[in-house]
């Protein structure tokens, strides 16, 4: 999920990374979610709510979350490709205005917002222009992650104390503001340098940005599900996210043939709709607790002095970080937990590479941005089929075989990492659009990797440590995004200069990282008695 930073990270967060408010959407999501929840979570509705005040059912919470993710992701999908096209148009106009004014179709005095129509788009697929666009977006991604890195730890601690809902509301409401600022900079491009758009990153000070919000969405899902149902629920929520990736790009591509600005306006509307929508999500902190335990928690929390009474900022930070230090010491007791946290690095690097994929496709295969956007829709279509069909069927088949939830998650994580490795390397080497599409489909088969990995890792820690675990994962995710944006932009720029197969240099580098992760995952169940899934301490279910 991303506005400013690819909201595709709420992608869902990620979570990435990164939803139109159509009246039909709730019905669509209900068909995606209802079969699982009606079967697997039905007992949870009654069991968890009988002892306390009546609460919203897990099914209702997950449906609302699915619709919200869909709305926000639609906003991202409608705006990101058109925004990249406008930035390309501006840099292209400025380049040819200086190097060869005969290529200019409309003089500065008559050119409109975004320099659209000032130069033929085919003349913009040169390394000088594409390199600037890549570095602009890579640096934007780096700056977007700075607030996330600073706030992720305090926000994670506060989410376990004050609740998830206030932070979600703040974060979602910052998305339309960030996109409006980027649009203003592109609209008045003759006044502003495009780098002024980087100030949109300040919006992430509200809620911590996409990485933090993605982590909180996963926390909410964990609050209302069990280990046996969690992975399947992740898949269906992820599928809701992917519906936007399937529906919106063709619409955005069609709109871009008229004017990319219209698509950006539509994206901002989707972000704005998400603001009141997020208010429907109830507080899930302590959702599984009995009424008595919840009362004890509230009472003990009230006994603590409010943070506002601490005038010294040092005391505030100390109060935030002390629980995290304790949690880190707990995580260090199991080396697998620490190592598995770092396997999320390639997940976020993949998120970083997704916006670059649009530039890569457009440049290497000489396509317009609207054509490249349409081609990348194949990825979303195959992914939805995988998650709603094949992978759900495989998951159920493994369940019938007697494998525990942990073993199933690890097995599927290994297989997904293998597909990601093969597909991403093939994407970087594909000489034509047909082979590129096939390679993209192979990589898509591994799209469940972060879902299975997160579910497996969640079950290795105590329930009261889940939010803090996700906070640590969020820190690692943020660092990966910060490094990945500028790094892949530089690799892409360098690849353009070298030419040929080197244009796919960012994807070849990403493939090497997935290879290392796959080797680790293959060893984790067999390296020692302590790390063996068959050990009684692990398979004690």
From TrEMBL:
The keyword Membrane is annotated on this UniProt entry: yes
Primary location class: membrane
GO molecular function ontology, one term from the record: transmembrane transporter activity
Keywords of the record: Membrane, Transmembrane, Transmembrane helix
Membrane-protein topology: Multi-pass membrane protein
Gene3D superfamilies: MFS general substrate transporter like domains
One GO CC annotation: membrane
InterPro entries: MFS (IPR011701), MFS_trans_sf (IPR036259)
Protein name as it appears in the record: MFS general substrate transporter
């Amino acid at each position: 999920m991303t506005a400013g930073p690819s909201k595709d990270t709420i992608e869902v967060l990620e979570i990435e990374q990164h939803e139109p408010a159509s009246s039909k959407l709730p019905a669509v999501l209900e068909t995606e979610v209802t079969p699982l929840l009606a079967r697997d979570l039905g007992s949870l509705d009654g069991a968890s709510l009988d002892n306390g005040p009546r609460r919203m059912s897990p099914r209702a919470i997950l449906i609302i979350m699915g619709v919200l993710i869909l709305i926000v992701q639609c906003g991202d999908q409608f705006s990101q490709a058109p925004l990249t096209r406008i930035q390309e148009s501006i840099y292209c106009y400025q380049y040819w205005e200086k190097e060869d004014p005969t290529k200019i179709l409309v003089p500065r005095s008559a050119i409109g917002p975004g320099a659209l129509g000032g130069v033929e788009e085919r003349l913009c697929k040169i390394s000088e222009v594409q390199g600037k666009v890549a570095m602009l977006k890579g640096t934007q991604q780096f700056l977007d992650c700075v607030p996330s890195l600073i706030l992720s730890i305090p926000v994670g601690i506060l989410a376990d104390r004050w609740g998830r809902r206030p932070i979600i509301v703040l974060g979602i409401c910052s998305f339309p503001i960030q996109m409006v600022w980027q649009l203003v900079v592109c609209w008045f491009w003759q006044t502003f340098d495009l780098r002024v758009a980087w100030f949109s990153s300040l919006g992430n000070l509200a809620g911590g940005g996409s990485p933090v919000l993605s982590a909180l969405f996963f926390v909410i899902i964990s609050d209302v599900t069990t280990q046996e149902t969690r992975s399947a629920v992740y898949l269906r929520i992820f599928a809701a996210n992917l519906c936007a990736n399937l529906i919106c790009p063709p619409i955005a591509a069609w709109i871009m043939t008229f004017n990319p600005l219209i698509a950006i306006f539509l994206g901002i509307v989707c972000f704005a709709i998400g603001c009141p929508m997020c208010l429907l999500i109830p507080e899930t902190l302590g959702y599984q607790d009995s009424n008595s335990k919840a009362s004890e928690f509230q009472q003990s929390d009230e006994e603590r002095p409010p943070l506002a009474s601490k005038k010294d900022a040092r005391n505030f930070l100390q109060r935030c970080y002390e629980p995290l230090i304790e949690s880190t010491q707990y995580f260090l007791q199991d080396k697998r937990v620490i190592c598995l946290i770092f396997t999320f690095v390639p997940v976020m690097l993949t998120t970083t590479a997704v916006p670059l994929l649009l530039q890569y496709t457009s440049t290497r295969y000489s396509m317009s941005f609207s054509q490249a956007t349409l081609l990348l829709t194949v990825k979303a279509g195959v992914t939805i089929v995988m998650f709603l069909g094949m992978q759900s069927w495989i998951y159920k088949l493994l369940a019938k075989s007697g494998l525990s939830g942990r073993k199933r998650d690890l097995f599927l994580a290994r297989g997904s990492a293998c597909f990601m490795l093969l597909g991403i390397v093939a994407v970087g080497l594909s000489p034509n659009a047909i082979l590129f599409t096939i390679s993209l489909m192979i990589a898509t088969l591994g799209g469940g990797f972060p879902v299975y990995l997160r579910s497996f890792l969640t079950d290795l820690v105590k329930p009261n440590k889940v939010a803090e675990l996700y906070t640590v994962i969020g820190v690692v995710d943020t660092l990966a995004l910060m490094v990945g944006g500028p790094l892949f932009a530089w690799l892409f720029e360098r690849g353009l200069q070298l030419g040929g197969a080197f244009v796919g240099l960012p994807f070849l580098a990403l493939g090497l990282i997935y290879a290392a992760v796959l080797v680790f995952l293959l060893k984790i169940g067999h390296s020692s008695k302590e790390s063996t899934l068959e050990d009684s301490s692990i398979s004690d279910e």
